[in-house]
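step 4 of 6: structure.
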Amino acid sequence: MAHASQTSPVGILGGGQLAMMLGEAAQRLNMPTSILERNSASPAHAAHFPVTIGDWRNPSDLKTWLASLSIVTFENEFVDTGALREAAHSNLQFFPSLDAIDLIQDKLYQKEFLKNAGLPVPRFRSVSTMADCEACADDWGWPLVLKERRMGYDGKGTFVLRGPDALDGFWSHYHAGRDLMAEEFIPFATELAIQVARGKDGSVAHFPVVETFQSNSICLWAKCPALIPRNDATAIKQMASTVINQLNAVGVFAVELFYTASGEIFINELAPRVHNSGHYTIEGCKTSQFEQHIRAVSGLALGETSLTYPGVAMLNILGEFDGQCDIQSPSSLANGHAALHWYHKQDSRRGRKLGHITAWGDTANAALATAIEARKEIELCPKK
Amino acid sequence: MAHASQTSPVGILGGGQLAMMLGEAAQRLNMPTSILERNSASPAHAAHFPVTIGDWRNPSDLKTWLASLSIVTFENEFVDTGALREAAHSNLQFFPSLDAIDLIQDKLYQKEFLKNAGLPVPRFRSVSTMADCEACADDWGWPLVLKERRMGYDGKGTFVLRGPDALDGFWSHYHAGRDLMAEEFIPFATELAIQVARGKDGSVAHFPVVETFQSNSICLWAKCPALIPRNDATAIKQMASTVINQLNAVGVFAVELFYTASGEIFINELAPRVHNSGHYTIEGCKTSQFEQHIRAVSGLALGETSLTYPGVAMLNILGEFDGQCDIQSPSSLANGHAALHWYHKQDSRRGRKLGHITAWGDTANAALATAIEARKEIELCPKK
């Protein structure tokens, strides 16, 4: 394991589970972190990482926090880049850059970037009137996908309209004051993702292509390797390289993709950060996405990314009720073939990601089966 | 819907959920059934189909039951064909034939048949000593798969031995008195299945290729269509045709297959009957496997087998505790996008198949996600 000593900690904007797992990776590398988070009871705080309580949107809070930092990274792309620019001192570097965050946080700009880079994306258009949407449906057919350009995640802000009536209803009840874009609907057979890292020296390392499974746009599980032809996996790695090189980014990015029954590949969206689809890498790859990100932003050499088992799977643990939630779990899951990551969320509700299980085996499917069995050994219960 | 009137009912050997669903299909075709089952409280009985209580292995019980029948079919291939031959009268036809049952019920004969038919199967050999097994492992490498030749289902009687120590342990504790065969281990990426029907006129109809997901050899779900290249689906249909034509069989068969990451296909095993992997066809195909089987054995034209929705999934409902089990379920599952089939088993235990859910959607994955959501709406509880 490489070690490094930093003069100043790595700043992480946001204190959720991604920050917590970044903190865990940094700690193993002997790399201090400093986290800014609004809520006093965050996963990063519960895991005993140093958390500064403050509002990301408030330049004065930001300024105080940033004063002792020289490197800042993100667990969340929905930050206020204007406030960050205002608060930043001259020795501060953001990874990825605020320009990259600006581009990615607007789904329209993001898609334009991808298209201009020659990457395959669903057809899309900016829309501002119902007539614009109708024109899209005339050209591409129904269903029509409408997306809020900013702030959407886990399917929030994405609407699949099945026909003119749905568009009518959407337009009269929903659209006011929102910047929207339209996309053609891709009848994908499955969703794929890849994590890609770029170091300060421009070196690029890909994780394997992972298959993700969503219900109501929430990821239920991911399994790796994805069962796709080798050529398609190679093509996806090339796409990920193009993305991260063209953005001149440093750190780990996730590229989420659609894969159709006939083997067509479309990039769905980018995350300029570690991502749920890469949680399997903690036990599943020789270097995790979290360690890789810390390595990248702090100028260490990128780590080896191959799988540690022939098959790995990650199963999200989702809230089953509203109200603070605790967990009862045996000390060893699935006879030692699975590992638990619990996020210690203060605030839990039905469907919210509260933790995840990683499992491993001879194949991705065997690992998923083990993860499903391990999940049965864990009980969620109201916190006393 | 075609109708038919039979002078005598279709005899079904076995009264489990497969017989129950065959009975439901026959009823809709106005085709009476007569079921022979040992247990007085079977799924077929609970569903109010006429059940004769008797022992399949007892020629006298069989003779009484068979007297009024001219057609007999099976929900289970582990029947005593000797007793059936002894009890059969001259006007009785078995579909499939008792010769086909004999062949399939012995996994070694089944594999020899498949190999001789030019179909791709894992390498296999009859073994009767530990030295035989060691020779197989020398030739094929570890792990080595040992199978009891007869009576195995849901992984029972199948042993994956990881190395010489495991073989040693197996041999000293387990092998006595069992007829075994050895198979090379195929590191399959996923399992596939296909239902194929053959009519009395020799016509053949294939259902789509379905992808199945097993945990501890128990099917958790199946989803259709399988995400495999079109050429591979065509090859699998041809294999299924070869199987059913060479056996000159009448009725529905299931062919279970292994599919590797590099797209290799191996036949794992045959079921000479309707099969769990085809339950999705009840709502998911224009004709279900159950109706198709009744059509075939009673000489009706085979029905159309295409999907009724772009994607369909079946999720097994497995017992969560030992002891008689009841179900609490809303009247409509997943807002009407899923259907429940409950088997009314008297005897339930952890892991036993108690029912299944079918769900449908734009894709197989969307249907599976819906089935998983629907499963949460159903609660299993001890029977009062």
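step 5 of 6: annotate
 - The longest helix of chain B spans residues 230-246.
 - Chain B has three domains: 10-94, 123-184, 190-382.
step 6 of 6: archive
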